[in-house]
Design goal:
Order of helices and strands of chain C: HEHEHEHEEHEHEHEHEHEHEEH
Shape of chain A: globular
CATH class of the largest domain in chain C: Alpha Beta
Radius of gyration of chain C: 20 Å
Largest sheet of chain C: 6 strands, parallel
Order of helices and strands of chain A: HHHHHHHHEEHHHHHHH
CATH architecture of the largest domain in chain C: 3-Layer(aba) Sandwich
Largest sheet of chain A: 2 strands, antiparallel
CATH superfamily of the largest domain in chain C: Response regulator
CATH topology of the largest domain in chain C: Rossmann fold
Number of helices of chain C: 11
Oligomer: heterotrimer
Distance between the termini of chain C: 13 Å
Number of helices of chain A: 15
Structural class of chain A: mainly alpha
Number of strands of chain A: 2
Helix content of chain C: 40-55%
Radius of gyration of chain A: 23 Å
Strand order of the largest sheet of chain A: 1-2
Largest interface: A-B, 38 and 48 residues
Number of domains of chain A: 1
Distance between the termini of chain A: 29 Å
Helix content of chain A: over 70%
Structural class of chain C: alpha/beta
């Protein structure tokens, strides 16, 4: 896009001054270049394109498991199955990314999602409310739950970690209260409100089986990418996460931005609630208890900095896929669940270490 | 210059923090097209004065006018909207965002038509074009890639971006808080050039600095703040740096005509 | 509706942390019920049984629960509270069956009768008595049933084992090993899941005992071998999840799914052919018997005896299915629905 380089129509004196300055600058640059190792260059490259790390890890791990586990792993069907398996955590990771980009954290994402799925299910199945209305109530509820987090963080100035730790418990208790800890059975949903399960439907393509839920996940990421990179709001989200005070001084209404981020995260969780009913088959108040931590795992592996303001929204999509690929690959190789957990643990630590290393470029 | 009407003026500003009076009936005048340096010992109320002018604190008493119209700000945003831009010592840039993004932070340009009004699509090309234009106006086009993150720039270049941002949007006054404090010799020189460039473009500047050589080099007049109020205003060509420091610290009393100014 | 209200009030109580129980009056027998969580309908039912029985016998009952399964600390505090309040007996389903032993000993030293419900402590004699489902037998019943359904084909079965968690808690091990024994597979170490060498076992995976986990585990194992035809599941929610996978793979009619628990949605799933058979356990009975034992202890000082041949009191387990097999006692779905919990 930036093809032409403008030259400065500066005053003569300034130009002469600049010339002499440029000379000394240049020698400085050469000095640096001579001592720049391959590692430094990689570091700089990754700093410019932070999503490359997870992309490389994903490609390498797919190839490696393809070689070790063979066709059972490296088939269109299995790879699309991984997409299905990660779809719900992926959607939660999308919501989580928004909050983490603002240097916050949202421990309540999974609780909002499960609560909204219970609300949708109770309304549509148990109470006979038309499904579209039940869904809208769920979306509104998710947005409100997220906005509550945002208001607590901005108005009461509570740290996001503590705020969402609190609301996590609150939403979880409400979930148990509304559901009686009892699942709504798949067969009852089929009978009363089949639309609730629409994201569980599959369609075949080139031997792969894609669920609408995994398509929804990709669409959510695409939409968030657009919002974050192509609208003023998105730029503000990054600015707030990068340096809230600076953003404030630069004229951004940071609190409004923060509340909108948490509210949007809540809405995404509600979309996840709809998708999860399709994926799980039933409304299951006890599923996804660790969904918040799994979403954070995907975000971190996806290269979004926990310190905010850095990383691409597409990273967590890749991050969620990496976790899915590892789980599937290790399982097909015959590795015990215990060691799958072990491997994911190391992935997290390595991902954060790489993030820290990349950030040192700017220091 | 002083024959003109001041563009930004304050009379009898009072600001108290509990029992401490930071501003004690302070006056202030900035004239069109000038660089006015504000100097003062630590605790003289210099920063309270600047915060009052830039809207960061609201004053308890006194009047301020911008272009003759009375003004009262309750936030930096209001001051900015009125045309008073401040380049903070911290620069208030977002390091991970690009130069163009930073320059347009909070006043982005959207695409024309439904793409902009419904989909809120940013007009990247236009923003980058304007940003490049503004930077080259100030002789800052050694920065070649307008899309590079601000954190990859040197301290002086960042200062340049912050100044360009302040100067870019039809501002009437730019306040610069310690622009050279964190910079090396070479970078400081460039920033001073930049300040003069801004002045050449007709925007008056309030320069807060501890650095006497820098102040004496670029300022047209020097406002010396002492004990919460304006002690005097001097012209750098009439006095030496040690005079200014002596007035500032109370070691010497300034002449009557300077106090009257 | 009444059940809903009860659950609502208990969940609310959980949300508001634990209301301090009032002190026991001297003439009134008092008991404590400490469950792993009060999320699980199983424990909700347990509480219901204990509450009803205590009311009937004019006893005072305080109930406590951990926040999640594995919340040991809250249970320790609950036992300490019970000691301090001078309870006559404690019913506990321990989250950490080894670590709880010390504080249980303190309670017993204070003359309190401690009965482990559902989950035996380790060692089992750390409690005065254990009232539990015979989980091994529960597994064995569904194993036998599945083998009988297949007949001669059992020799060529391909079995998926959908377990609870990687930490292999005792209930997980007992049901798993019971199933395998019932099916006719040689066990290696009876305390270990997954060490069998029989080729009929396609693999083990964990489900966390919920639908999502069941679905994922079933997908994983079908990737290992798409011809699986027998699925063991740790509980009925996991079975429901597994069924969703089978359905999306188009294999729901060729696979036998068996489970354990006997919750109402689970039995309903047996009725609809989603689950072939399930072993039903009786938490309400378990808790009611426990309360009676405490009442008896307070009156006579007698501690309850274990069932003959076992080191705990077996509160019973029955196979629920509408396709009974010869030589294996079972009850019909209709009966199962009457006895179901949750």
């Amino acid at each position: 896009m930036t093809s032409s380089v403008d030259t400065a129509p500066a005053a003569r004196g300034a130009q002469a001054y600049e010339e002499s300055l440029e000379q000394s600058d240049r020698s400085l640059a050469e000095f640096e270049a001579r001592h720049q190792s391959a590692l430094d260059r990689i570091q700089h490259f990754l700093h410019g394109y932070p999503t490359m790390v997870p992309v490389i890890v994903l490609l390498v791990s797919v190839l490696a498991f393809g070689i070790v586990a063979g066709d059972r792993f490296f088939s269109a069907f299995n790879l699309s199955l991984i997409m299905q398996q990660v779809s719900i955590i992926g959607i939660l990771a999308a919501a989580q990314s928004l909050v983490i980009l603002t240097a916050g954290i949202d421990l309540s994402v999974a609780a909002i999602m499960v609560l909204m799925s219970v609300i949708m299910g109770n309304l549509a199945v148990s109470m006979g409310v038309p499904t579209p209305i039940a869904l809208l109530v769920g979306f509104a509820g998710g947005t409100a739950a997220g906005a509550l987090n945002g208001l607590l963080v901005t108005r009461l100035k509570l740290p996001p970690f503590i705020t969402t730790l609190g609301t996590w418990n609150i939403f979880f208790a409400l979930n148990l209260w509304l559901s009686g800890a009892q699942s709504i059975r798949s067969q009852d949903i089929d009978e009363q409100a089949p639309i609730l399960k629409i994201f569980g439907e599959n369609f075949g393509m080139f031997g792969a089986q894609f669920s609408y839920g995994s398509v929804l996940m990709v669409l959510i990421f695409a939409a968030l990418w657009y919002l974050l990179n192509r609208t003023a709001w998105g730029r503000h989200v990054y600015a707030v996460g990068d340096d809230k005070e600076a953003a404030e001084l630069a004229g951004i209404r940071t609190n409004r931005t923060l509340v909108s981020v948490y509210a949007l995260a809540g809405l995404v969780c509600a979309l996840g609630a709809w998708a999860s009913i399709g994926r799980v088959g039933s409304v299951s108040p006890q599923s996804f208890y660790e969904g918040n931590l799994q979403s954070i795992t995907a975000v971190v592996i996806g290269g979004i900095s926990l310190f905010g303001g850095r990383g691409s929204i597409m990273g967590p999509l890749i991050g969620a896929l990496i976790v899915g690929v590892f789980q599937s690959g290790l399982r097909l190789v015959g590795v015990d669940v215990l060691w799958q957990v072990f491997a994911i643990g190391w992935l997290i630590i390595i991902a954060v270490a790489i993030d820290q290393w990349i950030r040192k470029v700017s220091a | 210059m002083s024959e003109n009407v001041p563009i930004l003026s304050a009379r009898g500003l009072v600001k108290r923090y509990g029992r401490v009076t930071a501003l004690d009936r302070a006056d202030f005048d900035l004239y069109p097209g000038e660089i006015l340096a504000v100097i003062g010992d630590n605790g003289a109320g210099k920063s309270s004065l600047i915060k009052a002018l830039s809207g960061a604190v609201s004053i308890d008493e006194g009047d301020m006018t911008l272009e003759g119209r009375p003004m009262r700000f309750s936030s930096p945003m209001e001051a900015r909207d009125a045309g008073i831009e401040t380049v903070y010592q911290t620069l208030a840039l977002s390091p991970a965002l690009s130069i163009a993004d930073n320059m347009f932070l909070g006043r982005e340009i959207r695409k024309k038509g439904p793409l902009g009004s419904i989909f809120k699509l940013l007009d990247r090309a236009e923003m980058e074009k304007v940003a490049r234009q503004k930077l080259s106006d100030l002789g800052l086009m050694t920065i070649q890639n307008i899309a590079q993150p601000v954190e990859t720039l040197s301290g002086g270049q960042r200062q340049g971006v912050a100044v360009a941002r302040a100067a870019a949007f039809g501002s009437k006054v730019i306040i610069m808080d310690e622009p050279t404090a964190a910079l090396g010799v070479k970078e400081s020189r460039r920033v001073l050039e930049l300040i003069l460039d801004v002045k050449r473009r007709g925007i008056p500047i309030v320069l807060i600095s501890h650095n006497m050589p820098h102040v004496f080099e670029v300022a047209d007049r020097i406002h010396i703040h002492r004990l919460g109020r304006r002690l005097c205003v001097i012209k750098p060509k009439d006095y030496s740096m040690s005079d200014a420091v002596a007035f500032m610290t109370g070691a010497k009393t300034p002449p009557e005509e300077a106090i009257a100014a | 509706m009444k059940r809903q209200a009860l659950i609502a009030s208990t969940a609310l109580a959980a949300a508001l942390a634990f209301a301090a129980p009032s002190h026991a009056q001297d003439e009134q027998v008092s008991a404590c019920l400490i469950t792993k969580t009060d999320i699980n309908p199983f424990f909700v039912k347990m509480k219901e049984g204990a509450t009803a029985k205590a009311e009937e016998l004019g006893m005072e009952l305080a109930t406590y629960a951990g926040r999640v399964d594995g919340d040991h600390q809250t249970q320790v505090q609950a036992v300490e509270t019970c000691i301090a309040s001078g309870a006559d007996g404690i019913l506990i389903t321990a989250s950490d069956t080894k670590a709880i032993v010390d504080v249980v000993q303190t309670a017993r030293d204070n003359g309190i009768l401690v009965i482990a419900l559902d989950t035996p402590l380790e060692p089992i004699d750390a409690a005065d008595a254990t009232f539990a489902t015979d989980n091994f037998k529960a597994g064995e019943l569904i194993g036998q049933w599945a083998a009988a359904q297949l007949g001669d084909e059992a020799a060529n079965a391909k079995i998926a084992m959908l377990d609870l968690s990687p930490s292999q808690p005792s209930v997980d091990v007992l049901r798993n090993q019971g199933f395998l024994q019932g099916f006719g597979i040689d066990l290696n170490d009876e305390n270990l899941i997954g060490d069998e060498e029989d080729e009929r076992i396609v693999g083990n995976d964990v489900t966390s005992g919920n639908e999502e986990g069941g679905r994922r585990a079933m997908e994983n194992l079908l990737q290992v071998d798409p011809e699986i035809n027998v699925v063991y599941t740790i509980n009925e929610p996991a079975a429901a999840g597994a069924y969703e996978t089978l359905r999306s793979f188009g294999r729901q009619d060729e696979v036998i799914v068996v489970s354990v628990d006997g919750g109402c949605p689970g039995v309903q799933n047996v009725q609809e052919g989603i689950i072939g058979a399930t072993s039903q356990q009786y938490p309400l009975e378990m808790a009611a018997l426990g309360i009676e034992a405490i009442a008896n202890f307070a009156r006579t000082g007698e501690t309850p005896e274990p069932s003959p041949g076992l080191d705990f009191y077996d509160t019973g387990v029955q196979l629920v299915t509408d396709t009974p097999v010869e030589g294996l006692e079972s009850i019909s779905v209709e009966e199962g629905l009457e006895l179901c919990w949750g």
